[in-house]
Each structure stands twice: as C-alpha cells, then as structure tokens.
Amino acid sequence: MEAIRRGPLLRRLREMTVGADGSVVPAAGALVNFASNDYLGLASHDALREAAKRAIDQYGIGAGASRLVCGTMTPHLQLERRLAQFKGVEAALTFSSGYAAAHGVIGALATEGDVLIFDKLLHACFIDAARGSKAVVRVFPHNHLGKLESLLEWAQQEHPQGRVLIATESIFSMDGDRAPLRELVALKKRFGALLLVDEAHALGVAGSHGRGLAHECEVHREVDILMGTMSKALGVSGGYLAGRRSLIDLLINRARSFIFSTAQPPALAAAAHAALELLASDEGERLRLALWQNIRQMNAQLPPAPGGSSATRRAESAIFPWIVGDEASAVDVSARLAEAGFFAPAIRYPTVARGAARLRLTISARHRPEQIQALTKCLSGLAL
Ligand SMILES: *Cc1c(COP(=O)(O)O)cnc(C)c1O
C-alpha cells in the first residue's frame, strides 16, 4: 500500500447516491454524470422498479440456492426465453454477472489442447478466465484482421485437434469503437473456429431496438456465442450467454460459475425482463434515438484530446475516450471537471495501458443538450 499511495494509481471508493434524474450525488454536491453505463436511464425507470417490487413480494429476496439445486424460479426462465427471442437465437442462460458469464463459457469450452484467440482490448474478465484455463492463449492487435488470420493459420497447424475460440467485444468498453463483425464471421467460418462476441456496451445501444451490433450487422445467427450483461444499458445486474440450444445445454452442465454460484435474485431477473420489454417498445426506441441524438452532439462538440484519440472520430457508440496520457494529469483533469460540476473519473492502468490514461466520457439518453454543451466547453477551456 505504501508504494501504491506514492504513485498516481491509487484507487478509492466513493459513496454515491443517484438523483431522480440520473445525476450522481457525492458528499460535496450533485454532479452531471458522464461516467455511467446506464445509457438509457433504465436503472431508475419506474417500469423496472415496479417489476422488481412485484417480484420481491412474490418470491422474496434471495434465490436460496444455485440454479441447478432449487434456485431456478419463474422470473429466471421468463427472462432467458425473452432474451433468446430478443436476440433472435435459440436459447440464453443468465449468470450472476458478466464477469461470471465469461468465466463460465471459457471454462466450459476451452481446455488443454484448445486455443483461445483474443482481441488485445478484450475485457479483463476474459483475461482472468483464460488464466484459469489450460488452453493456449494468443492475442491479436486491436481489430487487426491480418494478424488474426495468421494466428488462425498457426492454430490450425500447431493444434489441429484443438477447438479454436476467437473472442472480441462488439463495442469496446474503454475505446468506444466497433469490431468488424462481418469480417470476423467470414474468418471464423474459413478456419472452422468458434466466435464469441461480448455485446456489453452494444445491447440497448446498437441495432434496431438495441438488439446489439451483431443484429445491426445481420450476423447474430452466425456468431456462435453472444455474451452480454444486464448491468449496462439494461440498468440492472447479471450476465448472459446466448446462442444455439446445444451451447446452452453444455453451459448448464459445464460452466462452473453457473453451477457453483447462487442464482441471480429473482427480482433482478424480473427487472431485467422489464428492461427488455421496454427496449422492444416504442418508448424504448424513443430513448435509444434520444441517446443517439446526444451521441451525435457530443461527437460534434468534443474538442480533440491532448493525448490524441485512439478511436476514430465517428459516432460509433455512447463511449468517448478522451485520452490525456499520463496518469497524474488525467486525475487532475478529472478533479477540474468535478469543480465545474461534471463527474468523469480518470481511467488508468491496469484498466487501460500505461501512459494512455483518459477520461472515459459516456453519454446517456437523459443528458440535456445544454449539459453536453457545458461539458465540452469546459474541456475546450482547460489549458493542458
Ligand atoms: C462490464 C463488462 C463486463 C462485466 O460485466 P458485469 O456484469 O459488470 O460483471 C464484461 N465485458 C465487458 C465488455 C464489460 O464492459
């Protein structure tokens, strides 16, 4: 701890309450929130509150056991059926978190002699899951199809009997850019590999009614494993995996984070179900279009970042990396934004590479145009 305290990477917990309008309220006073993954403002939506309250009245709080023992209740099954239908695939399975879903699928599908091929920017939950697996792990530079192709050739030669699993995010969590899903599907088919796509930041954001980027690219039935979380745009908590029935049956039998962990509380499953119904409704689509209106405004007004931008300046998602560079300056910029009334914590190593510290600015459907304008003006005015 002494060493950590001396450096610029000390992390602290902040106690927060959330205002009715989605603002965060730290002890010092309310700040406009540019850090949340609650892209549509569903975390405080009445439809979700009501669904959760009804489920608490009917089922109580805890599930009482793992799904396979006696923790599977009606809300879990209804949610899984609705998720599969919404995603346009045969079946879905829910986990207590996205982190647990990643561990479950990697453990169930990859063992000794198999090969895992990850995009360099793939979320830490997969890196951790791969560490616990006996499979060989290879990483390709971010979105680099040529390097991926060479790795697939290598895997075919060196591990001809092994299963090869490519994993990527559809919208990347810290850079906000997109994976070339159509090209990835073509490659995985050519090499007989499996493709996993983590849609954590695309669900509710990309595709009609927020079905995700795989849907937008019309490859949702060709991606072998669609992963996501209910903790971002759905505004709840819990992870999911979706795909063919045979995949889901295998996960029920082999995914250790599913088998050996207590089921998600039924009220959260009910709230996530309500969130999906909302996405599918006219109101949901209006919220999503309002989000995109705000994303376009941010894209037009955000000044260039001092450390350059790793993502292209196209409005590809609700995530805007504003790269400052060194860790101490990023913390300083964040503090100056807080003084001006905006909440955007510095994102530092190990969440992103050393020297690529940034503000990860996120947009929500609930921002008002003048709030986005004020933030971008404040950033323009910082002498860096
Ligand atoms: C947040 C996130 C996860 C983990 O999901 P939780 O439900 O928060 O555990 C997995 N993958 C990506 C890309 C994420 O951003």
Outline the structure in words:
This protein has 15 helices and 14 strands. The chain has 384 residues and is an alpha/beta fold. The protein folds into 2 domains: 2-30 and 282-383, Alpha-Beta Complex (Aspartate Aminotransferase, domain 1), CATH 3.90.1150; 46-279, Type I PLP-dependent aspartate aminotransferase-like (Major domain) (Aspartate Aminotransferase, domain 2), CATH 3.40.640.10. Strands 4-10-9-8-7-5-6 form a 7-stranded mixed sheet, sandwiched between helices. A 3-stranded antiparallel sheet has the order 11-14-13. Strands 1-2 form a two-stranded antiparallel sheet. The model has no long low-confidence stretch (mean pLDDT 94). It binds pyridoxal-5'-phosphate.
Distance between the termini: 30 Å
User: What's the arrangement of strands in the largest beta sheet?
Assistant: 4-10-9-8-7-5-6
Number of strands: 14
Number of alpha- plus pi-helical segments: 15
What ligands are attached or bound here? Answer: pyridoxal-5'-phosphate
- What is the count of structural domains? 2
What amount of the residues lies in strands? 15-25%
Overall helicity: 40-55%
CATH topology of the largest domain: Aspartate Aminotransferase, domain 2
Q: What is the second-level CATH architecture of the largest domain? A: 3-Layer(aba) Sandwich
What's the CATH C level of the largest domain?
Answer: Alpha Beta
Blueprint (SSEs and pairs):
Elements: H1 2-6, E1 17-18, E2 24-25, E3 32-33, H2 46-59, H3 67-71, H4 74-87, E4 91-95, H5 98-109, E5 115-119, H6 124-131, E6 136-140, H7 145-158, E7 164-169, H8 181-191, E8 194-198, H9 213-216, E9 225-229, E10 239-243, H10 245-254, H11 256-259, H12 266-280, H13 282-301, E11 319-325, H14 327-339, E12 342-343, E13 346-347, E14 357-362, H15 369-381
Parallel strand pairs: 3-12, 5-6, 5-7, 7-8, 8-9
Antiparallel strand pairs: 1-2, 4-10, 9-10, 11-14, 13-14
Helix pairs in contact: 2-12, 4-12, 5-6, 5-10, 7-8, 12-13, 13-15
The structure holds pyridoxal-5'-phosphate.
Residues 97-99, 123, 125, 169, 173, 198, 200-201, 229, 231, 239 line the site of pyridoxal-5'-phosphate (PLP).
